[in-house]
Amino acid sequence: MKTRMFSVLCQNVPGVMMRISRSFTRRQINLDSITVGIEPSGLARVILTFKADDRLAEFMRRVLARAEPIIDVEVIDPERSIAREIALLKTKKLDEEQLWKVVELVERAGGKVLENKGNVLIVELSGSHEHIEKVITELGPDILKEVARSGQVLISRETC
Amino acid sequence: MSMVEMTGAKALFEALKAEGVRDIFGIPGGAMIPVYDALYDEPEIRHILTRHEQAAAHAADGYARATGKPGVCFTTSGPGATNLTTGILTAYMDSSPVVAISGQMPNSVLGSDAFQEADMLSIMLPITKHNFIIRHVTELPAIIRLAFKTATTGRPGPVHIDLPKDVQVSKADLKIPAEVNYHKKIKLDPDPEDIRKAVRMLVDAEQPVIYAGGGVIWSSASAEVVTLAEMLGAPVVTSLMGKGVIPEDHPLALGMLGMHGRMAANLAVSECDVLLGVGVRFSDRATGDVRHFASRAKIIHIDIDQVELGKNVRVDLPILGDAKRSLAAIIEGIKLQVKKGRTSAWLQRVKRMREELAPRMDYDEVPTKPQRVIKEIMSVLNEDAIIVTEVGQCQMWAAHFYVVKKPRHFISSGGLGTMGFGFPASMGVKIARPECDVVTIAGDGSFLMNSQELATVVENKINVVSCIFNNRYLGMVKQWQDLFYQKRRSGVYLGNVPDFVKLAEAYGAWGDRATRPSEIAPKLREALKCGKPAILDIPIDPDEHVLPMVPAGGRLDEPILT
């Protein structure tokens, strides 16, 4: 099933996240990521990614558009948008060989080592969802202790 | 109106009066006392003290369905508020504008498991069109008005407001806004191109059928449905919610569609070449197996809710818009077309189906057959009487056999199928329409689910009549067990209690029993004239099934007949 991305503009009122998330729960859809930011207008913009076929995706667009606090639902076309995700990674206590391997890999991936305390590294990565997935997979569970990810934020390339 | 210092409770009533509210159903409690204290000074507001909060919700719902205007109910926090849930979901499933207001523990203790605290924002969220919690008294006037606007705009639905006690008592300089800023844009006018396409399809149809639902009633578009049907020579079938859209004795009215629909309605939909669905949601109980539903037809679907378009069945032409405006536009379009005599064969077929498949009701057996009971009730009531039903076999007998002549004169819990809805809903109907006879067609199982409201109707002189189709069973479950579970009647026999006549008398209501078919009409006349709420206990044949029946997921043209 295709990954879908919605950018949902809504009132910043109590219960709005629950209203959105339960619409998916009820139809047995897992949300892959949710990010929320407050716009200068005071409205909230919620970015959702999930998997669904065409029919279900269109149905969910309508379900969200109907909800009272929701002002607009934009279906984001990945081809016509820019998506980014940030991840913070904490490693296990590494030996020297592992440590240099990680530093090299992270630098190659455009990331940054933020901290090294007693051979435990904290690393920042950013880029596309797929890019971050790839780096995390490469490092693997033998190296990584903890992963914190922002979920995808995205913005359409449309100019008006 | 300029700013006036007042409490939240006082402002609540000012806002309710601005909405034209005159009747409220409810029960007070600790977290709602300040509101009830303010009610003490509101002689214009009539408060009906129900005996259970679920009944208050159903009564408000009945009021809304009978008038098209919002019904209002009050409860306290915690159990009072949670008792609303079945009633609120019932209203949501049938798109009924109920505004429910519950007390809540003060803001300062929310989330601490305080006495009678329930997280109503979360509990009500999935079962309302929208819900609010009022955090500060200054928000109150606008939220109350917004609640009413939300409940009644576009597709109607229930709204719940959680009102913490500190907000009820705090004072502020407040003003009830004359207008409310409602941000949702509801598309009322259909796309003209869609209308042109619909006109073309309908004019070209050889065997058109109109399928009308509750949305037509909420949109006050019944007259447009009848006009269009007559212009096209198209028979009209309805959903349960659509009963009354067209007078059911009209030559083009084929009655209800679906699992317990009329044979003629089910066959017409199976045979038609264009089906115009309007204000319906193509529920599974109406369509049966969707793969075979109207399989020869192009389907046009008019609805004001974009989510409904194409949700349950394939739709060839979805039209987003208000039912009345869309139908009016189609009627205008058709007026410009040259009329063909193409539908005469179809009209003959419709006439034949109507006559040959008319259901039989003239049984003389004792215990009385339910079909005969409906016939007797119809013989007594005029077309202004409002029929309310409980849920189950009694409901389907009423839906199948009762000939309803006007919209808002058949009131029933459709989507949720809530047993215990009918009797309390009938209270709301009677309060809203005191000039009409209001008769509930009840089963003995359903009636007992809210029979405590006998106290409410007697105390408040709400003279409704309940006809109890008494077979001592949870009849619809028994029917399924008889038909699909080898007659293994499990958990459905209700026993020989109570004596419904004595039950009525215990509350000071009128009660009598009609054991023979010939006794029903005279005793019902007496019940209507007795000047009290009344119960007419009618023992019926416990083995009678609601037939024909299309099994769940079956084809409309392949019903069980015997």
Question: How would the blueprint of this fold be written?
Answer:
The complex is a heterodimer of chains A (160) and B (562).
Chain A: E1 3-10, H1 16-26, E2 31-38, E3 44-51, H2 54-66, E4 70-75, E5 81-91, H3 96-108, E6 112-117, E7 120-127, H4 129-143, E8 144-149, E9 153-156
Chain B: E1 4-7, H1 8-18, E2 23-26, H2 33-39, E3 46-49, H3 53-67, E4 71-75, H4 79-82, H5 85-93, E5 98-104, H6 120-124, E6 130-133, H7 140-152, E7 159-164, H8 165-169, E8 171-174, H9 192-204, E9 208-212, H10 214-218, H11 222-232, E10 236-238, E11 253-256, H12 263-271, E12 274-278, H13 284-287, E13 298-303, E14 317-320, H14 323-335, H15 344-356, H16 370-380, E15 386-389, H17 393-401, E16 410-411, H18 422-432, E17 438-443, H19 444-447, H20 454-459, E18 465-470, H21 475-484, H22 500-506, E19 510-513, H23 517-529, E20 534-539
Parallel strand pairs in B: 2-3, 2-4, 4-5, 5-7, 6-7, 9-10, 9-12, 10-11, 12-13, 13-14, 15-16, 15-17, 17-18, 18-20, 19-20
Antiparallel strand pairs in B: 1-8
